[in-house]
C-alpha cells in the first residue's frame, strides 16, 4: 500500500535554503490568490459606483476600435461607427445610466449569494489560482493550499516537517493578504466563510470533502502522477478550473473553501471563528481520500516516482 511512504523527515527538510525558498514561494502564491479571490467579493459593494466609469470606458474603447479599423476594413469600420454612435446616444440618456446602476446594485446585492456573485467569485478564484500555481510550480510545486500539501504528504511526496513549513507560509500569506485588503479598502470587512441557512455543519463537511477530493484528485492526475506526460503543462489551468467549478456548485451552501488557508485568513482578520473547524476537517479528509485513491489505484508501487524535494 503506497501510504507506507509517509515520512517525518529531518530538520534539514525545514531549514535547507531550498526549503526556505519554497516556503516563500508558497507565501507569495497564497497572498496573490487570497488577495484576488477575497478582494473580488469585497469589490461587489463598489460596483454600482464604478458603473459610470465602465460606461465611459466602453464608449472610448468603441471609438478607438472604430478609428483603428478605418484603413484595414472601411466597410466594417462604417458599421462599427454607426453602432458606436448609437451606443453613445444611449449612454447619453440619464435614464439608461440610472437603470444600469440600479441593475448592478440588484445584481450584486448580497454578494456571492446571487448568481452573478457566484460567477464572479468562481472566475476570480479560478484565474487567480491558475496564476498562483503557475508562479510557484517550479519552486515549491505550487500547492497554494494546506489540503494539497496534506494530500502530497499522504502520498509520500513531501515530508511532514517540510509540509508544516508550507502550512505556516500558506497561513501567513492568507492573513497578510486579508490585512492588505482591509487597509487598501479603507477598513472594509474581510468576511469569514459561513454556512447558508438550512445548511448544517455536517452538510458543509460533506460538501468540503467532495469538492476537495475533486481538487486534489486533479492535482494528482495532472501534476503528481509520473505518467502525466504533456498533461502536466495544463496542470495550473486544470486546477483553477476545478476550483471555479466547485465554487459554482457549493458556493451558495458553505462558500466552497476547499482550502483551510483561504478560510483562515479572513477568520483571523475579522476574528470570526464560527464553524471554522468545518473548513479544516472537510478539506483534509477529502485530500487524504483523493491521495490514497489515486496513489493506490493509478500510481501503485511499481509506477511511483516521488518528486524531488525542490519540486514538492
UniProtKB/TrEMBL annotation:
Compartments where located: Membrane
One GO MF term: water channel activity
Cross-referenced PROSITE patterns: MIP
Any GO CC annotation of this UniProt entry: membrane
Pfam families, alphabetized: MIP
Gene3D superfamilies named among the record's database cross-references: Glycerol uptake facilitator protein
Protein's recorded name: Aquaporin TIP1-3
Amino acid at each position: 500500500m503506497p501510504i507506507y511512504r509517509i515520512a517525518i523527515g529531518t530538520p534539514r527538510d525545514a531549514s535547507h535554503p531550498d526549503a526556505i525558498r519554497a516556503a516563500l514561494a508558497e507565501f507569495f502564491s497564497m497572498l496573490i490568490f487570497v488577495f484576488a479571490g477575497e478582494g473580488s467579493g469585497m469589490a461587489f459593494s463598489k460596483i454600482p459606483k464604478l458603473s459610470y466609469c465602465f460606461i465611459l470606458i466602453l464608449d472610448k474603447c468603441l471609438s478607438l476600435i472604430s478609428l483603428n479599423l478605418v484603413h484595414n476594413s472601411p466597410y466594417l469600420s462604417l458599421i462599427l461607427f454607426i453602432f458606436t454612435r448609437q451606443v453613445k446616444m444611449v449612454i447619453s440618456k440619464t435614464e439608461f445610466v440610472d437603470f444600469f446602476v440600479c441593475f448592478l446594485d440588484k445584481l450584486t446585492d448580497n454578494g456571492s449569494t446571487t448568481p452573478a456573485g457566484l460567477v464572479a467569485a468562481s472566475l476570480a478564484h479560478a484565474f487567480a489560482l491558475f496564476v498562483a500555481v503557475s508562479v510557484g510550480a517550479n519552486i515549491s510545486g505550487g500547492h497554494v493550499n494546506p489540503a494539497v500539501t496534506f494530500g502530497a504528504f499522504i502520498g509520500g511526496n513531501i515530508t511532514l516537517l517540510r509540509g508544516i513549513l508550507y502550512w505556516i507560509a500558506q497561513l501567513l500569506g492568507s492573513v497578510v493578504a486579508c490585512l492588505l485588503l482591509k487597509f487598501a479598502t479603507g477598513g472594509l470587512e474581510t468576511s469569514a466563510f459561513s454556512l447558508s441557512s438550512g445548511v448544517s455543519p455536517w452538510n458543509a463537511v460533506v460538501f468540503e470533502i467532495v469538492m476537495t477530493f475533486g481538487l486534489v484528485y486533479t492535482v494528482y492526475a495532472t501534476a503528481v502522477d509520473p505518467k502525466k506526460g504533456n498533461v502536466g503543462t495544463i496542470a495550473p489551468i486544470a486546477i483553477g478550473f476545478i476550483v471555479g467549478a466547485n465554487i459554482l456548485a457549493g458556493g451558495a451552501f458553505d462558500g466552497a473553501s476547499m482550502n483551510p488557508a483561504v478560510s483562515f485568513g479572513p477568520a483571523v482578520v475579522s476574528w470570526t471563528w464560527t464553524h471554522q473547524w468545518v473548513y479544516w476537517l472537510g478539506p483534509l479528509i477529502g485530500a487524504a481520500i483523493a491521495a490514497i485513491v489515486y496513489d493506490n489505484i493509478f500510481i501503485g508501487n511499481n509506477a511511483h516516482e516521488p518528486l524531488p524535494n525542490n519540486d514538492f
